[in-house]
Design goal:
CATH superfamily: Nucleoside Triphosphate Pyrophosphohydrolase
Largest sheet: 5 strands, mixed
Distance between the termini: 39 Å
Shape: globular
Strand content: 35-45%
Number of strands: 8
Helix content: 25-40%
Radius of gyration: 15 Å
CATH architecture: Alpha-Beta Complex
Number of domains: 1
Structural class: alpha/beta
Number of helices: 3
Strand order of the largest sheet: 4-1-6-5-8
Length: 154
């Protein structure tokens, strides 16, 4: 069992657009989600994190992915969700902005591997994709340096 677990949700609206939240800690777009709390179910975590980060209330329709990050001993659980209520937050504690994107027009600056997870869902809609996510230490170093420079410019 992984040391930590996170739950993230691909929420798709009626037009087929995907919900993303721009983070405050890093100026990057991400799927709504976060860390599983003690005694919390995976689905409850995905629902809670989506509402906290976007303002939308969702229901989970299915689990679509499970990705292990060995360098962090972390398991990421990916769900498919649908919006059932709420409204977009304008500025939250963790979220700078919330927007809907077409799957073929995702933003350039996204959390590493999210595009891969979204593409896997679009390719294997009826299956749970299981995989491993690794990012080389050198790539992480470059990415963090880029973010430091970008945050000073913005």
């Amino acid at each position: 069992m992984a040391k930590t677990s996170g739950c993230f949700t691909i929420v798709i609206n009626k037009e087929g657009h995907i919900l993303l939240a721009k983070r405050k800690d890093y100026p990057l777009w991400d799927l709504p989600g976060g860390t599983l709390e003690k005694e919390e179910s995976l689905e409850s975590c995905a629902i809670r994190e989506t509402e906290e980060e976007t303002g939308y209330i969702i229901s989970i329709t299915q689990k679509i992915g499970k990705y292990y990050q060995p360098q962090y001993d972390d398991m990421q659980h990916i769900f498919l969700g649908e919006k059932i209520g709420g409204s977009s937050i304008k500025d939250g504690p963790e979220t700078e902005k919330v927007e809907w994107f077409r799957p073929n027009k995702l933003p350039l600056l996204m959390i590493p591997n999210r595009k891969k997870q979204i593409k896997n869902y679009l390719k294997y809609k009826d299956k749970i994709v299981k995989g491993s996510i690794t990012v080389s230490p050198f790539r992480i170093f470059l990415f963090k340096g880029f973010l430091r420079v970008l945050s000073k410019v913005l």
